[in-house]
Design goal:
about 80% helix, elongated, about 120 residues, mainly alpha
């Protein structure tokens, strides 16, 4: 009987941890959307954060592979090129790209700290 109670308690703890992780991940996703909208390194979307959903999603999916701010900047550039092409990327604002990189690195590090990853 005691073993059953332990298993139930462990399952509840795992479920609660999963919900916390999902909430942190959702907050990170929302923050990435806002960063891309506010800083818009290639000035493509001025009116609606929802337009950045594909970019935020593809950048977020690759952040675990980043080991440095340079990696994050490269991911951002690659994903923007993927979504908009080289010609559009030629219009990028290097200062906005740097600001976006710093903001995304900060958000990502905060997420890692809060999720215990």
């Amino acid at each position: 009987m005691n073993n059953e109670a332990t298993n139930v308690n462990e399952a509840e703890q795992r479920r609660a941890a999963r919900k916390r992780f999902q909430a942190h991940y959702r907050a990170l996703y929302d923050e990435l959307l806002e960063i891309l909208f506010q800083l818009d390194p290639i000035r493509v979307h001025r009116t609606n954060t929802d337009k950045f959903v594909p970019e935020a999603t593809s950048i977020l999916a690759r952040l675990r592979d980043a080991r440095s701010p340079e990696d994050v900047e490269q991911i951002i550039q690659q994903e923007l090129r993927r979504w908009y092409g080289r010609r559009r990327l030629a219009n990028q604002d290097p200062e906005r790209l740097t600001d976006a990189t710093i903001a995304i690195c900060t958000a990502w590090n905060r997420f890692l700290d809060s999720s215990g990853s």
